[in-house]
Amino acid sequence: SPTWDFPQDSGIPATGIDIIKRGSDRYAIITAQGSAAGKKDFWIVNVNNRISMTDGGSPPKDKAVAALDMGPGLNDVDVAGNYAFTINNTLTKQLQVFDISTIGTPVYIKAASRSLNAVYSNPTAPDSKPMVRKIFYYGNIIYIGTYYMPSYSEFQIFDVANSTSPSLIPGGSYDVDHNVYDIVVRNEIVGGVPKTVAYLGVSDSAGDKPKMVVLDVDHPDIEELFLSNEDSIETKAEKALWGTYGLSGKEKRKWIFLKDCSSEHLNNILKNCKHIAGSWCEEVIKHILIERDAE
To answer: Residue 91 phi/psi, 5° resolution?
Structure first.
């Protein structure tokens, strides 16, 4: 696919992207790592003429319609309506909001900035990885994931029904005890009950291998979804696979949860949760879908 570099501030790694449409125009909202003073880390780029963006080339200068320097760098972005929600790699005011109603002149809404409930003591986590890693907007709520923070919560939730005045939801923090690499949130019918479910792509404690955490974020105090007991498993083949994967009791209950999800939702997980690739969760989902196709 076509790629290009920014002519103004080359060499700065991009960290997040969202695509929006205004009228007949398409724009990429891009965040980038912090670098030397004066380097931009919030970009709005017109991507209408994608064919002209040839590999290794540069876009015409008027393609970058706006850019801002936010200092230490932005780690991700998600756009909802006229607002771009971003996360800054700082000790305070990590959640930052931009008004992009006028696409050529984005406005940083300083009064809308909010600090996470608690943060790691260093603005850059170990191994130079950003402390606040991922942001996801769904239904007037912002979900934020961080690098592993000892004694603190790596998953935190803000109400942004009023986009210019976000508020941390009471009980809206969960101690994942892992790096949170990716977040997908969907409405799902679980055991006949409508729920808002968050799927987190996280690291495993053993060799930083990928795994998935599934959370019920409708619960006043966020909880992992353990919906059934092991007796509800129906096939010997599944029990044999438990042994193959060496699953713990908690992981077996996650398997049962996945069985309750619709095929459409399971396919969405495979498509959107990139960090479950190669994990037992990916194999479980594929196994369930194959069983259903055979019915």
So the answer is: -80, -25
Burial 102-141 (b: 16+ CB within 10 A, else e): ebeebebbeebbbebeebbeebbbeeeebbbbbbbbbeeb
Angstrom distance (rounded) from CA 15 to CA 21? 21
End-to-end CA distance of the chain: 39
Q: In what order do the strands lie in the sheet with 155-159?
A: 132-138, 141-146, 155-159, 167-174
Pairwise CA distance, residues 274 & 211, whole Å: 11
Q: CA–CA separation, 193 vs 173, rounded Å? A: 23
Q: Are 122 and 131 in contact (CB under 8 A)?
A: yes
Check: pTM over 0.85? Answer yes or no: no
- Rounded Cα distance between 139 and 161, Å, is 8
- Report the chain's mean pLDDT, rounded to a whole number: 76
Phi and psi at residue 292, in whole multiples of 5°? -70, -40
Say what angle helices 249-260 and 280-294 make with each other, to 10 degrees. 40
